[in-house]
Amino acid sequence: MQLQLQYFLLLAAALFCIGIFGLITSRNAVRVLMSIELLLNAVNINLMGFSNYLDPQGIKGQVFAVFVITIAAAEAAVGLAIVLAIYRNRDTVDMEQFNLLKW
Amino acid sequence: MSSFFVQTVWIVPLYTLLGALFSILWLPAITSRTGPRPAGYVNLLMTLLAFVHSVLALTGIWNGVPQKLSITWLEVANLQLTLPLEISGVNVAALVVVTGLNLLAQLYAVGYLEMDWGWGRFFAFLAYFEGGMSVLALSNSLFFSYIVLEVLTLGTYLLVGYWFNQSLVVTGARDAFLTKRAGDLILLMGVIALLPLAGTWDFTELAQWANSESVRQYAAAHPTTFTLLGLALIAGPMGKCAQFPLHLWLDEAMEGPLPSTILRNGVVVATGAWVLIKLQPIIALSPTALAVTVGIGAVTAVGASLIAIAQIDIKRSLSYSVSAYMGLVFIAVGTLNDDAAYLLLLAHAVAMGLLVMSIGGVILNTITQDLTKLGGLWSRRPITAISYLVGAAGLIGFPPFGGFWAILKLVDGLWDKHPWLLGLVLVVNALTAFSLTREFGLVFGGKPQEMTERSPEVAWTMVFPMVVLLAITLHVPIILHNLSLLPRWENLHQQLTPLVVWSTISGVGIGSIIYLNPLWKKPIQLPFKPLQNLFAYDFYTPQLYRYTIVLVVAVIAKVTDWLDRNVVDGLVNLVGLATVFSGQGLKYNTSGQGQFYLLTIILGLTVFLGLLTAGLIQLSF
C-alpha cells in the first residue's frame, strides 16, 4: 500500500476534529489550550503532506510549518499567562465559570 | 320705484344675516356690563327692514312677470353651479310670510325672554333661520334649496339646544338634528341622481324637463329608477315636515324656547313642504312615489291628530297637529293639488303661529304646560282665549277662515279620483277640531286650578304681536278674496262645502260636549287603557327608534370599534410584539461562553463550506 496524500489529509482532518471536539467540550481552560495545540498540529500535518507531495522542490510548506510551530509556542505561552491571570482572580479554571459577558 | 325693490329683493336675506352678525356684539362674553337687550332691538329693526322691503317688492311683482336673477357660484370642468333666484308673486309672498312671522315672533320674544340673558345668541340664531328661509323662498335651484335645508337643520339644532344646561334639551336637539339630517342626506342622494338624468337643478327647467313627452316615456320605461329617485326626493321633506316615521324630533323640539316654536311650527316645517311642492313634477313621473307621498301624508295626518288628542303637554299637542297638517300638504302634493298645498301652507303658518303665541302667553304666566293642571282662564285671559279661538278657526275647516278654503280646495281636488282620501281629510279635520277644542276646554274652560288661580294677561310685547297675527288670520280670507284666489259663491261645491263644515262641527261639538261640560268627569279615561297609552306615548316611537335604527347602528358601531381596537390594532401591535419578543428570546444566543461562540463560528463555517462544496459538486456535474 502506497502512502498517499489523502491519508495524511484524512489523519490531519481527524486530528482537527478531535481538537475541535476538545476545544468546545473541555471544561478545563488548560485542556482548551491543549486542544488548540492539536488543531495547530493537524494544520502542520497538512502543510507537511502538501509540501512533500505537491511541492517537493520548494518545500514552502515546511517553512510554513516552522513558523506555525514558533507562533504556536508563543501563543501557548500567552494563553497560559491569560489562564494564570484569570485563575489568580477567580480561583478556578472551569470554562463554565467564565460567563460574565452574556446578554 | 317698485321695480327697484323688485330688483333688489335678493338683499332681504342679507338684512337678517347682518342682524345675526350684530347680535354677536351683545353676547355676555363680549358685552357683559349693559345686558343683551340691544341684540333683540337690532334684529327687530333688520327684520322690519326685510319685511317692508319684501312687501314693497310684492306690490311691484304680484301681477307682473316673474323675473329671474342668476349668480354664478362656481364653475368647474363640466359643472356650472349658478344660484338662480326667482322673483315671482308666490316666492315674494312666501318671503313676506317668512319675514312677517319673524317680525312678530321676534317682538314676542322680546317679551317672552324678559328674564333671559341669552338674547345675543337667541336672536342671532333666529336671524340665521330667517335668512335661510328667505333664501329658500327665493331660490329656484334644487341644489341651493338643499344647501339651505341643511343650513336650517343646523339652525334647528342650535335653536332647540338654546338652554343647553337642561338634559332633555340636549337630547331633543340631538334628535332634531340627526332625524332631519337623515332625511336631508337621502334627499342629497336624490339631488345628485337627478343631475345626470335632467342635466339641471333649476326648478323651472326641471318642471319643463319632467313635463316633456320624451321624459314621460323614458320614465314609463324605467319605473324603478324614477321610483327610487322620487322616494329619495320625498325623504328630505319627510324629515323636515316631521312626517311618520321621522316625526319624533318635532315632539322633542318642543323643549326649545317658545318664540322659536312659533317659527318652527309656522314656517320652518313648511320649508320641507315648499321644496316638495316644487319637486312635484318629478315625483309625478313615478306613480309609486306619488302613492308613497300620499300614504305617508295620510298615515301621518291620521296618526298625528290622534296622538295630539292624547297629549297632556300643550306644546306637544300642538306640535302633532303641525305634523298632521303637513301630512295634508303631502296628500295635496301626492294628488297633484299644488294650489291647495300652497293655500294650506299659508293658512297653517298664520293660524299655527297664532295658536302657539296664545299658548306661549299661558305658559309664561302659569309656568306649567300640563293640560291637566290648567283651566278656567277664559274670564281672565280673554285676549289670549280669543286669539286661540281664532287660530283654531283659521286652522280647521271653519268658514270663512283660511283653513276652510284650503281644505275645501283640497277635498275639491280629491272629489273625483280619491274618494277615500277625501274621507280621510275630513276625518283629520274633525280630529284636529276635536283636539283644538279639547285644548281650549282644558286651558280656558272649566274651573281654575291651583296653577291657574292667579294668571294675569302678559305684557304688551307679547299681546301686541298676538293681536296683529289675530288680525292677519281674520284678514286671510279677505286677502285671498282680493287676490281672487277664492272660488266664486255660485261655483262652491254643493256637496263638499257642507261636508267640510259638518266634519268641523262634529269635531268641535264632541270636543265641547266632553271638555266644556263640567259634568263630564276629567281626566278622560278610555275604556281600553293600553290604546290611550299608545297614543299618549306617540306609538312608542322612541322605543321603536331605540330598538331598530339606533340599536343596529350602536351594535355595528361597537363591533367595528372592537374590530378596530383588537383586530386591526392587534395585527399591527403583533408585529411590534413579535419583534420585541424575538429580540428578547434571541439575545440568549449571546451566552457568555467563549466555547459556545467558537461552536457557532465552526458551525457557521461548516454550513457555509458545505453549501459551497454542494454547489461546486452540482456545477461540476
Automatic annotation (TrEMBL), chain A:
Superkingdom of source: Bacteria
Keyword match Thylakoid: yes
E.C. no: 7.1.1.-
Entry annotated with the keyword Thylakoid: yes
Record-stated family: Belongs to the complex I subunit 4L family.
Its biological purpose: NDH-1 shuttles electrons from an unknown electron donor, via FMN and iron-sulfur (Fe-S) centers, to quinones in the respiratory and/or the photosynthetic chain. The immediate electron acceptor for the enzyme in this species is believed to be plastoquinone. Couples the redox reaction to proton translocation, and thus conserves the redox energy in a proton gradient. Cyanobacterial NDH-1 also plays a role in inorganic carbon-concentration.
Record's protein name: NAD(P)H-quinone oxidoreductase subunit 4L
From TrEMBL, chain B:
Localization per record: Endomembrane system; Membrane
Topological relation to the membrane, as annotated: Multi-pass membrane protein
Keywords from the UniProt entry: Membrane, Transmembrane, Transmembrane helix
Entry-linked Pfam families: Proton_antipo_M (PF00361), Proton_antipo_N (PF00662)
Annotated ranges, domain NADH-Ubiquinone oxidoreductase (complex I) chain 5 N-terminal: 73-123
Chief subcellular location: membrane
Keyword Transmembrane helix recorded: yes
Domain of life of the source: Bacteria
InterPro entries: ND/Mrp_TM, NU5C-like, NU5C2, Proton_antipo_N
Residue ranges occupied by any NADH:quinone oxidoreductase/Mrp antiporter transmembrane domain in the UniProt entry: 139-430
GO terms, biological process: ATP synthesis coupled electron transport; electron transport coupled proton transport
TM regions (residue ranges): 12-30, 42-65, 85-105, 117-137, 143-164, 185-204, 224-250, 262-283, 289-310, 317-336, 342-364, 385-408, 420-437, 458-480, 500-520, 596-617
MF-aspect GO terms: NADH dehydrogenase (ubiquinone) activity; NADH dehydrogenase activity
A GO cellular-component term linked to this record: membrane
Matching NCBIfam families: ndhF3_CO2, PRK07390.1
Role, per record: NDH-1 shuttles electrons from NAD(P)H, via FMN and iron-sulfur (Fe-S) centers, to quinones in the respiratory chain. The immediate electron acceptor for the enzyme in this species is believed to be plastoquinone. Couples the redox reaction to proton translocation (for every two electrons transferred, four hydrogen ions are translocated across the cytoplasmic membrane), and thus conserves the redox energy in a proton gradient.
Designated name of the protein: NAD(P)H-quinone oxidoreductase subunit F
Protein's organism: Merismopedia glauca CCAP 1448/3
Lineage per the UniProt record: Bacteria, Bacillati, Cyanobacteriota, Cyanophyceae, Synechococcales
